[in-house]
Design brief:
- The longest helix is centred in the middle third of the chain and has 27 residues, at 130-156.
- This protein is of the alpha+beta class and 250 residues long.
- α4 runs antiparallel to α7 (236-242).
- It is globular and about 55 Å long.
- Strands 1-2-9-4-7 form a five-stranded antiparallel beta sheet.
- A hairpin with a 4-residue loop joins β11 and β12.
- It contains seven helices and twelve strands.
- It folds into two domains: 6-146, Sandwich (Jelly Rolls), CATH 2.60.120; 157-242, Orthogonal Bundle (Arc Repressor Mutant, subunit A).
C-alpha cells in the first residue's frame, strides 16, 4: 500500500473464526479446511482515514475483504480531475482478480480495517476452490447491478432522490452488517462516511444542493440529523419513497 498509515493486527486476530464478516464475505463459501488455507495467506490491517490503499493503474499486489469502515473508489481523468465511482463497506471485496493493474484508486474514507490476500496466492486458491470462484463471480454481478442502478440515479433522478438514494443505500448497509448506531432502538442510524464535498462529487451535485436536500429531508421528517455526520432514519419505507424506489429494492 502506497503512502498509507497501516498497522498489522496481532496473529490471534488473523484467525478467521474471529472475523465479524466471514460468512458474508467471499470466503464465506469455504469450508473449515479451506478457510485454514486462506488464513495462512491472510493479514488483517488497519488503514487511517485519508490514506491510499491501492492506486489506479498500478500492478495488483493484493486483494482484500473490508472488515469495517468505508473505502471510496476513484478514477483520475487525463487532466488530473478525480471522480468517485464507488464505495465499499463490510463485507465488500476490494480488487479485481486476474487483472494485471488496479482499475481504480482506493482510499480510506474513514478508518478502515481490511483482510488482505497476496494476489498470486489468492488466485491459486480461487482456481482450486469452485465455491470461492462462484462467490467472486457473484460479487462481480452485484457490482454490475450497482453500476446500472447508479447510472439510473445519475441520469434520471432528481436532486432530492439522489441524496435520499445515497442515504437509503447507507442505511441498508448499516442494517445488513449490524452496524446500527447505539441508543437508537427501532431506528437505523449511521455516520456519513463522506464529506459533503465527496457526496456532491459522487452524486453529480453541488455542495450547496447536497446540504439543501439534507435539510429538506430533515424538515420532512424523513431523516434526523443527530450531528453533522450522524444520520438517523425513523422509517426506512419513507426514505425509500423519497429515493424514488420500492422499499424492498435490493
Amino acid at each position: 500500500m502506497h503512502g498509507t498509515v497501516t498497522s498489522i493486527l496481532p496473529d490471534v486476530m488473523h484467525r478467521c473464526d474471529h472475523c465479524s464478516v466471514r460468512h458474508q464475505a467471499v470466503c464465506g463459501a469455504m469450508d473449515e479446511v479451506q478457510i485454514k488455507k486462506l488464513a495462512q495467506i491472510a493479514h488483517r490491517k488497519k488503514v487511517s482515514a485519508g490514506q491510499t490503499i491501492i492506486s489506479d493503474e498500478e500492478p495488483v499486489d493484493f486483494f482484500a475483504n473490508v472488515i469495517s469502515g468505508a473505502i471510496k473508489l476513484t478514477k483520475t481523468l487525463p487532466d488530473g480531475r478525480q471522480q468517485i465511482v464507488g464505495l465499499l463497506f463490510a463485507p465488500d471485496f476490494l480488487g479485481r482478480a486476474y487483472s494485471k493493474n488496479n482499475p481504480y484508486t482506493a482510499e480510506a474514507a474513514t478508518d478502515v480495517e481490511i483482510c488482505t490476500f497476496p494476489n498470486a496466492a489468492f488466485e491459486r486458491l480461487v482456481g482450486e476452490y469452485p465455491g470461492l470462484q462462484q462467490r467472486l463471480f457473484q460479487h462481480t454481478l452485484d457490482e454490475l447491478d450497482a453500476a446500472r442502478d447508479w447510472m439510473l440515479l445519475l441520469g434520471r433522478k432528481t436532486a432530492e432522490e439522489k441524496v435520499a438514494s445515497f442515504l437509503y443505500m447507507l442505511a441498508r448497509r448499516s442494517l445488513m452488517t449490524g452496524c446500527q448506531h447505539k441508543n437508537t432502538p427501532g431506528m437505523s442510524g449511521f455516520e456519513l462516511p463522506l464529506t459533503r464535498a465527496d457526496i456532491a462529487d459522487y452524486l453529480g451535485l453541488t455542495i450547496e444542493t447536497v446540504s439543501r436536500q439534507l435539510t429538506r429531508l430533515k424538515t420532512s421528517h424523513v431523516i434526523r440529523l443527530s450531528s453533522n455526520r450522524l444520520i438517523l432514519v425513523p422509517d426506512m419505507a419513507k426514505l425509500a419513497q423519497s429515493a424514488g424506489q420500492d422499499s424492498l429494492h435490493h
